[in-house]
Design a protein that fits this description.
The protein has about 220 residues and is of the alpha/beta class. It is about 30% helix and about 25% strand. Bound molecules: nicotinamide-adenine-dinucleotide.
Length: about 220
């Protein structure tokens, strides 16, 4: 059994992760950390082997550092910070994914395929109105991957924030007389759970740290 703690456990994603961990036969939910539950992450690190963090952009880097320094592996879902500065910190591994939904990974792979052939590209990302960062981590990651594949992502990335939305993105390529639109919609937070559980199972065996992107676990 993998002993799992959830950081941001009272939040929208954190609550969904707690249920998913409780439903997994090979995992045990041993801690729920969240200031809203009066429980600090640092107070529960001695009870867990892996922490899953879905907290806030302004606390996630510090949370990940605390895990690594305590020898606890960390699966990071919070978007916004640059986690590359945590390379070499502690004796544990950090896995980061800006999007844990398999469909979003496939959207990014499809965008990489299209970029060399139809380089002109615009990204529109749409999220619920409680999301703190913009553009989304998924959009920033897609732009990086498209540009690495030879595409030209127009500035700015368009961010829509409205009630009723969960997490959606359209990547549009334009060429002479044609466009190609690649769209992914997460209509429920459960869409992220298979990816989160996969990362919990695999984080201890990573050969380097941090590893960024679910594609490294799904397609690598
Ligand atoms: N990677 C993905 O697939 C994915 C998917 C959805 C959302 N997200 C990201 O996950 C993050 C959380 O989203 P949400 O909608 O659940 O937010 P939310 O506001 O519903 O929940 C955040 C929770 O973190 C708690 N928190 C605040 N400070 C904390 C700290 N220092 N330590 C631990 N917890 C703390 C808050 O009390 C709150 O309960 C956001 O950055 C969002 O963009 C990522």
């Amino acid at each position: 059994m993998i002993r799992v703690g959830v950081s941001g456990a009272a939040g929208r994603m954190g609550e969904t992760v707690c249920k998913a961990v409780e439903g997994a036969e090979d995992m045990e939910l041993t801690a729920r950390a969240d200031p809203a539950l009066d429980t600090a992450l640092t107070d529960v690190l001695d009870r867990v082997e892996v922490v899953v963090d879905f907290s806030r952009p302004d606390t996630a880097l510090e949370n990940a550092r605390a895990c690594l320094e305590a020898g606890v592996h960390c699966v990071m879902g919070t978007t916004g910070p640059d986690f590359s500065e945590l390379q070499g910190v502690g004796r544990a591994n950090l896995f980061v994914a800006p999007n844990f939904a398999v469909g979003a990974v496939l959207m990014m792979e499809a965008a990489k395929l299209a970029a060399p052939h139809m380089p002109e590209c615009e990204i529109i990302e749409l999220h619920h109105d409680g999301k703190l960062d913009a553009p989304s981590g998924t959009a920033a990651r897609t732009a990086l991957l498209v540009e690495e594949a030879g595409g030209n992502v127009h500035d700015p990335i368009h961010s829509v924030r409205l009630p009723g939305l969960v997490a959606h993105q359209e990547v549009i390529f334009g060429g002479t007389g044609q466009t190609l639109s690649i769209r992914h919609d997460s209509t429920a937070r459960e869409s992220f759970m298979p990816g989160v559980l996969l990362a919990v199972r695999r984080v201890s065996g990573l050969e380097s740290s941090p590893v960024v992107g679910l594609e490294h676990l799904l397609l690598g």
